[in-house]
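Ops channel
N.P.: pipeline sanity check, posting one input/output pair.
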């Protein structure tokens, strides 16, 4: 993967792009006067991450980039600001001050909703195994600005880690967090899902490992929750009780 900047970057932006390349094991290429198409051809690599003043944009073959946008998370948080309930927050039993581990960060929509719910005395740890998604979303959470300072605060407090949750969970002590959440790529993709569309192809497609669910149960003081299609056999395979079934359902394991 190539990491570059727009034409005429500031020295700070160029430094940032080059340190990001070191962090992700990618190749930093100064942009100079080159077009993105020329860079792709010159380096024989179709994967391009461009660091600009608005954040990171990832291009793969096409000119239609992946970038961070809170989309539905912002709608859900605005409803919570008005005192409405969020189904995920309710069924996880999430309260201010909790430590939530989101094992499948993706575009961080659910992590944002959890972060708003736990507030400034709580903590959301969000794990993502795919370097491009990790970088785009970590940067977006730090720089995306809404008109609501409390919502911006919820973005900034999320602690993102580039990690496979299988390894991360196994290394945690017993009863060390409140809630563990899994939203893996569905076994049967829902092709009408506009929120997942942009990350398909980049995301880790592997099914949940029962051993990871066992570690989640060991470390969670309240609940372990998984999201899947309502007809998915994953709930039974992994020992979750299916709740709140629409097209999408949540499975809950209560560890209290
Ligand atoms: C369906 S998306 C999650 C969407 C997310 N809940 C949101 O609100 O934006 C699943 C994400 O989990 C990541 N993932 C899958 N398996 C993982 C693993 N073992 N460790 C860390 N991340 C993983 C995928 O790369 C993908 O980005």
């Amino acid at each position: 993967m190539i990491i570059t900047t727009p034409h005429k970057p500031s020295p700070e932006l160029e430094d940032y792009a080059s340190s990001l390349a070191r962090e992700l094991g990618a190749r930093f290429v100064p942009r100079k006067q080159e077009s993105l198409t020329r860079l792709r051809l010159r380096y024989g690599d179709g994967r391009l991450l461009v660091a600009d003043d608005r954040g990171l944009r990832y291009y793969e073959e096409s000119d239609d980039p992946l970038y961070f946008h809170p989309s539905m998370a912002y709608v859900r948080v605005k409803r919570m600001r008005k005192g409405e309930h969020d189904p995920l927050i309710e069924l996880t039993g999430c309260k201010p001050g909790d430590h939530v581990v989101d094992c499948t960060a993706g575009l961080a929509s659910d992590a944002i909703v959890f972060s708003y719910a736990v507030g400034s005395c709580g903590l959301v740890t969000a794990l993502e195994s795919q370097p491009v998604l990790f970088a785009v979303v970590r940067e977006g959470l730090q720089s995306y600005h809404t008109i609501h300072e409390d919502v911006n605060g919820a973005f900034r407090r999320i602690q993102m880690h580039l990690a496979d949750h299988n390894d991360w969970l196994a290394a945690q002590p017993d009863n060390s967090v409140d809630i563990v959440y899994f939203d893996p790529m569905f076994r049967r993709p829902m092709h009408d899902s506009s929120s997942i569309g942009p990350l398909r192809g980049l995301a880790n497609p592997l099914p949940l490992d029962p051993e990871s669910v066992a570690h989640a149960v060991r470390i969670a003081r309240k609940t372990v929750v998984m999201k899947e299609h309502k007809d998915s056999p994953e709930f039974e395979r992994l020992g979750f009780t299916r709740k709140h079934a629409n097209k999408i359902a949540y499975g809950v394991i209560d560890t209290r």
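N.P.: looks fine end to end. The first helix runs from residue 11 to 24.
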